[in-house]
């Protein structure tokens, strides 16, 4: 049913965050949250200590489990995958038609999709997503609804997201070990696809927008044009790099550098009084030492300018910055830095805003807690599930993990099969196994 409770697990290099949510009159209602540290267990989004990572995931699942009702009921979670090993590329498949004057059928489009699926899988052992982004029949313009058109050939463009099989298997192993008796693993999504579902509006995606998710170990840059993902990349660049610069530049410990960044950091040094000083405790009872907050801001500002320049470079690979009427949207823990949106806008000359998840809660404490860009991916993982579920036409819709095939929701018994438009709205192939056909993993 559509009121199912779904758990989103955002596994990052500093924390794993979890939210449990359901749909309430078309809006996402978050009823529980959880958080556990992963610092030192993941490096640049990659697991380096599987036991500690599994324990951190298990901890947040336990936090959720103590809150949700119906302890004997089974729930499942969606989780994310990121890291510089992720590769995003365009694949085009072409099929010649026997009868150019006949209308294109749904069967032909599905056959083209299957051919693309096979060709992609032959060259890539770990395909996370295969997103149809456009079709061309003969010399006609690109469309997402080719059925009924006429022409001598059909071309389909697919945005493909692949991952390192070794790193994928390691995450799968960690997730399996963290499952509880009543909370099991479900779908796995490339982080930006989940995040965009709760952060970006349809209008922004249509007009052109850049989503920049700044984590502690990585930064994900994804560009949408005409409602379609046009480009994405994952950088080994995150808040930890700023912390390292603060540590070196101010000659302080990593712990003090991180604390200074969080409590006193700013992306604009001109806003800071030159006389503002913070005293850093000395080691083992030694005298505290003064640190200039303005110098702290100078270090932060230079690093964020560097990131803004990288974003501009990624934009130039696919379009002109002037075409991005939706601007830049910043999310993730790094987006909490004061004045970061203003610095991005000054540096790139592109309108920039901080993205807050489109979700609420009937619990006041949680409603306030999730008004935070660091919750964007966790909430997006819940939202993207319901987005797919809502695309299925009315009927009995199974929602257990066993009913998930490559990330799409199978139609329930006795209900009308979805039409071609619904099929391609939902054709986001996700997996929890070693091939696209796996769709799920063995618990």
Annotate the secondary structure layout.
Blueprint: E1 6-11, E2 15-24, E3 27-37, E4 42-43, E5 46-47, H1 50-65, E6 75-81, E7 87-96, H2 106-123, E8 127-137, E9 153-162, H3 165-178, E10 183-190, H4 191-199, H5 202-207, E11 209-214, E12 219-225, E13 228-235, H6 239-250, H7 254-264, E14 277-280, E15 289-292, H8 293-316, E16 328-331, H9 340-348, E17 352-354, H10 364-369, H11 376-391, E18 404-405, E19 408-409, H12 420-425
Parallel strand pairs: 1-6, 6-10, 11-16, 16-17
Antiparallel strand pairs: 1-2, 2-3, 4-5, 7-9, 8-9, 11-12, 12-13, 14-15, 18-19
Helix pairs in contact: 1-3, 4-11, 6-7, 6-8, 8-9
Can you walk me through this structure?
It is built from twelve helices and 19 strands. The model is unreliable at 393-443 (pLDDT under 50). Helix 4 crosses helix 11 (376-391). Helices cover 33% and strands 26% of the residues. It is α+β, with helices and mostly antiparallel strands. The chain has a five-stranded mixed β-sheet, sandwiched between helices. It has a domain at 87-162: 2-Layer Sandwich (Dna Ligase, domain 1). Strand 18 (404-405) and strand 19 (408-409) form a beta hairpin. It has helices at residues 50-65, 106-123, 165-178, 191-199, 202-207, 239-250, 254-264, 293-316, 340-348, 364-369, 376-391, 420-425; strands spanning 6-11, 15-24, 27-37, 42-43, 46-47, 75-81, 87-96, 127-137, 153-162, 183-190, 209-214, 219-225, 228-235, 277-280, 289-292, 328-331, 352-354, 404-405, 408-409.
């Amino acid at each position: 049913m559509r009121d199912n409770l779904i758990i989103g697990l955002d596994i990052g290099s500093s924390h794993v965050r979890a939210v449990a949510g359901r749909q309430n009159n078309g809006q996402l209602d978050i009823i529980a949250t959880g958080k556990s540290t992963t610092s030192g267990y993941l490096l640049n989004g990659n697991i380096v200590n599987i036991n500690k990572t599994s324990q951190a995931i298990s901890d947040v699942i336990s936090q959720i489990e103590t809150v949700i009702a119906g302890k004997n009921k089974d729930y499942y979670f969606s989780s994310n995958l990121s890291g510089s090993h992720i590769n995003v590329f365009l694949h085009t498949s072409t099929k010649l038609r026997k009868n150019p004057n006949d209308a294109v059928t749904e069967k032909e489009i599905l056959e083209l999709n299957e051919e693309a699926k096979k060709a992609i899988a032959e060259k890539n052992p770990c395909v996370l997503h295969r997103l149809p982004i456009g079709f061309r029949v003969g010399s006609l313009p690109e469309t997402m609804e080719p059925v009924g058109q006429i022409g001598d050939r059909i071309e389909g463009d697919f945005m493909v997201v692949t991952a390192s099989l070794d790193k994928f298997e390691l995450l799968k192993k960690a997730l399996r070990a963290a499952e509880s008796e009543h909370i099991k693993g479900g779908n796995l999504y490339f982080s930006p696809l989940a995040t965009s579902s709760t952060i970006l509006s349809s209008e922004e995606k249509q007009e052109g927008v850049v989503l920049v998710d700044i984590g502690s170990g990585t930064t994900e840059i994804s560009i949408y044009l005409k409602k379609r993902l046009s480009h994405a990349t994952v950088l080994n660049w995150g808040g930890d790099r700023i912390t390292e610069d603060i540590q070196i530049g101010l000659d302080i410990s990593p712990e003090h550098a991180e604390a200074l960044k969080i409590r006193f950091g700013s992306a604009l040094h001109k806003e800071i009084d030159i006389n503002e000083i913070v005293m850093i405790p000395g080691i083992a009872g030694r005298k505290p030492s003064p640190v200039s907050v303005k110098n702290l801001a100078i270090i932060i500002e230079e690093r964020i300018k560097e990131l803004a320049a990288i974003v501009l470079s990624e934009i130039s690979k696919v379009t002109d910055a002037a075409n991005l009427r939706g601007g830049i949207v910043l999310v993730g823990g790094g987006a909490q830095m004061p004045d970061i949106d203003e610095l991005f806008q000054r540096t790139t000359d592109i309108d920039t805003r901080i993205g807050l998840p489109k979700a609420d809660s009937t619990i006041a404490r949680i409603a306030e807690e999730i008004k935070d860009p660091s919750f964007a991916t966790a909430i997006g993982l819940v939202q993207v599930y319901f987005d797919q579920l809502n695309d299925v036409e009315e009927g009995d819709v199974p929602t257990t993990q066993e009913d998930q095939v490559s990330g799409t929701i199978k139609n329930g018994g006795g209900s009308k099969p979805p039409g071609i438009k619904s099929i391609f709205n939902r054709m986001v192939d996700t997996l929890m196994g070693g091939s696209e056909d796996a769709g799920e993993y063995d618990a």
